[in-house]
Amino acid sequence: MTADPSLTPADLELLRRPLHGFLTVAAGPVPPQPRPVWYEVADDGTVQLFTGPDTLKVRRLRRDPRASIVVAAPVGEREHWVSVSGRVTVEADGAHDLASRLAARYWDLTDPVRAQDLAGILAEDQVRLVLHPDDVSRYAY
């Protein structure tokens, strides 16, 4: 395992696959509770997600903006994971565009059920979470 503040080409290769990330936000005295999330690595190295503006994770991030995301290769592949930690900003713009890109990454949108699921997401208010990396850890076997 190594720690480095930037993403390597091998990190980006793993992070650009349609895998679930596990997001953990700072919770003060409450034990952290990771949640599976869709995510996207932007060209500037930030990790972006979308969520409802009134979710518990947003309320916690407004109090303490520290968070991390861990992404691991699936079972059957050699062990490989990347963890990105840093401060999160909650952005009012870009969430619906991000949701549309991620839905196309994770779902077959030619499936009418999935297309309707995306329409439901886009009908709701969303915010964009932007994780600005302060530390990147990784492991590859």
TrEMBL record:
It comes from the Bacteria. Residues 31-106 form the Pyridoxamine 5'-phosphate oxidase N-terminal domain. This is Nitroimidazol reductase NimA-like FMN-containing flavoprotein (Pyridoxamine 5'-phosphate oxidase superfamily). Keywords: Oxidoreductase. The lineage of its organism: Bacteria, Bacillati, Actinomycetota, Actinomycetes, Micrococcales. InterPro entries: F420H2_bilvrd_red/Heme_oxyg, Pyridox_Oxase_N, Split_barrel_FMN-bd. It holds the Pfam family PNPOx_N. The keyword Oxidoreductase applies. One of its GO terms (cellular component) is cytosol. GO terms for molecular function: coenzyme F420 binding; oxidoreductase activity, acting on the CH-CH group of donors.
